[in-house]
Amino acid sequence: MDNKKKIRVGLIGCGFMGRTHSNGYSKVSNFFPDLAFQPVLQAVCARREERVKAFAGQWGFKSYETDWRKLIQRDDIDAIDICTPNHLHAEIAIAAAEAGKMVFTEKPLARNLEESQKMVEAVERAGVKNMVWYNYRRLPAVTLAKKIIDSGKLGRIFHYRANFLQDWTISADLPQGGDAAWRMDIDVAGSGVIGDLLAHCIDTAMWLNGGIANVSAMTETFIKQRVHLDTGKKQDVGIDDACIFHCHFQNGSLGLFESTRYARGHKALYTFEINGENASIKWDLHDLNRLEFFDNSVDSDVKGWSSIHVTNGDHPYMDKWWVPGLGIGYEHSFVHQVADFLKSLETGETMQPNFRNAFETQKVCEAVVESAKTKEWKETGVEFKG
Ligand code: SOE
If you take atom 10 of ligand 1, which residue's CA is the nearest one? Predict the structure, then answer.
């Protein structure tokens, strides 16, 4: 019998994100054996019984529900993890906080700033632990970038550049709405690439380089009407298919961000580059174990971009995995996020990003939406970033 304290998780939603989180909970105790807490796959919830039952069996959940309200009322659940489409985040999170549960939610925190604010107020009023799954922070190469920047090696930072490029919505035959295409439906998603992809870039950027002060943005919706799966009729598309914005960071550096689902050939090309006075860093999700580093203090005859394979035992998280030289993948970022959350329960430190922290990211998203609409610079009102 192990004497780990159990966190009984009730997961809502069994799509792609439901799988990534379930995998994180399943693996964490094997690879982070020293943690005092252990997640238990207590229950999973989704509307269609056949589907949720199969999911529960496949992932080892002890039980299932088809009504999230029932799940939240259960005494044998400590934490509610929301992996639903965005329009349900606020309602579920607020109800879960009021029921005294810990609350985790997939990114973005919500569809808009108003919903996000209510969620932050609810978890803070209830005093429950909370976090948002901005998983890319937890990739070892990205965490190493944070360590390098915090050590001061880059010196003054001048530029931050990020892209998140995909190509899965180019076909005009792709519908909007329903289980598969909810990301295309403005009422469900809240926005297009801004909340889905740029939110990741903004979270990482503010973690690495501090708050974004103001933005100037443009968006485009290339295909104006698509069949809606709820009605079977062609309806206006309300989401942004692509967005480009530039910005000032609070530290005086300039930022340039681009995201689109129309970059033919790119599936999930998330990249960032940071240029400082003394050094630069760049990273690419397609080669996620690598960090490129340029150090200007190196002798000129051997100076150049070095490619760090972030797989040594002393690299972030890597002592928990295999042996130096052997890489890890996308799914490990979720295992790391669970591990960091469990560790925060042990140490009493505030988990980042939590709802309040993700609210700052949401402020930038909202300013981007507004700026694109009004064609004006917008102040974000970002106050802090952890
Ligand atoms: C969209 O295609 C998506 O799955 C996002 O929703 C995820 O957050 C991102 O990590 C990968 O792309």
Answer: 197
Distance 29 CA to ligand 1 centre (A): 26
Q: Give 283-320 pLDDT, tens digit per residue.
A: 999 999 999 999 999 999 999 999 999 999 999 999 99
State the distance from the centre of ligand 1 to the C-alpha of 309, rounded, in angstroms: 25
How do residues 184-213 score in pLDDT, each as one tens digit? 999 999 999 999 999 999 999 999 999 999
Answer yes or no: is the C-beta of 180 below 6 A from any ligand 1 atom: no
Spacing, Cα 196 to ligand 1 middle (Å): 6
Could you tell which of 196, 198, 202, 267 is best to mutate to test the pocket of ligand 1, judged by most ligand atoms within 8 Å of the CB?
Answer: 196
Please write the tens of the pLDDT for every residue from 130-187.
999 999 999 999 999 999 999 999 999 999 999 999 999 999 999 999 988 999 999 9
Q: Whose alpha carbon is nearest atom 9 of ligand 1? A: 197
**Which residue's CA lies nearest to atom 8 of ligand 1?**
196
User: Is 326 close to ligand 1, i.e. is its CB under 6 Å away?
Assistant: no
3-state SS track over the chain: CCCCEEEEEEEECCCHHHHHHHHHHHHHHHHCCCCCEEEEEEEEECCCHHHHHHHHHHHCCCEEECCHHHHHHCCCCCEEEECCCHHHHHHHHHHHHHCCCEEEEECCCCCCHHHHHHHHHHHHHHCCCEEEECHHHHCHHHHHHHHHHHCCCCCCEEEEEEEEECCCCCCCCCCEECCCEHHHCHHHHCCCHHHHHHHHHHHHHHHHHCCEEEEEEEEECCCCEEEECCCCCEEECCCCCEEEEEEEECCCCEEEEEEECCCCCCCCEEEEEEEECCEEEEEEHHHCCEEEEEECCCCHHHCCEEEEECCCCCCCCHHHCCCCCCCCCCCHHHHHHHHHHHHHHHHCCCCCCCHHHHHHHHHHHHHHHHHHHHCCCEECCCCCCC
Q: Is the CB of 203 under 6 A from ligand 1?
A: no
Please tell me whether the overall predicted TM-score, pTM, comes out greater than 0.85 for this model.
Answer: yes
What's the whole-number average pLDDT of the chain? 97
Q: Find the 153 Cα to ligand 1 centroid distance in Å.
A: 31
The domains located in the chain, with CATH, are 5-135 (3.40.50.720), 137-379 (3.30.360.10)
